[in-house]
């Protein structure tokens, strides 16, 4: 498992790349349940930059079932 410090660093870099323009901007974060910790850290960074994060996560099994 990746340690929390690396996850926090990745989330900061990801949010900086998003380039939030306005206060209150809605940002959708989508990923698998295996990456929940990273999704939450990204959401916290977005919140710190005055954005509004929305997290969507689903398991691989659910995603595969939807496309069959």
Q: What does this entry look like structurally?
A:
The protein has one domain. The chain is 51% helix and 21% strand. The mean pLDDT is 94. It starts with a helix and ends with a helix. Helix 1 (4-18) crosses helix 2 (36-48). The protein has 68 residues and is of the alpha+beta class.
Summary keywords:
2 strands, 68 residues, two-stranded parallel sheet, alpha+beta, 21% strand
As a whole number of angstroms, the C-alpha radius of gyration is 13 Å
General form: flat
Number of domains: 1
The low-pLDDT segments are none
Beta-strand content estimate: 15-25%
Rounded mean pLDDT is: 94
Helical fraction: 40-55%
The helix-strand sequence is HEHEH
The secondary-structure class comes to: alpha+beta
InterPro entries: M29_N-terminal
Which helices and strands appear, and what pairs or packs with what?
Blueprint: H1 4-18, E1 26-32, H2 36-48, E2 52-58, H3 60-66
């Amino acid at each position: 498992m990746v340690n929390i410090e690396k996850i926090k660093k990745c989330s900061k870099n990801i949010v900086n790349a998003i380039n939030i323009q306005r206060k209150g901007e809605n940002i959708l974060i989508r990923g698998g349940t295996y990456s929940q910790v990273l999704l939450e850290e990204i959401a916290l960074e977005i919140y710190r930059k005055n954005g509004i994060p929305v997290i969507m996560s689903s398991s691989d099994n659910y995603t595969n079932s939807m496309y069959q």
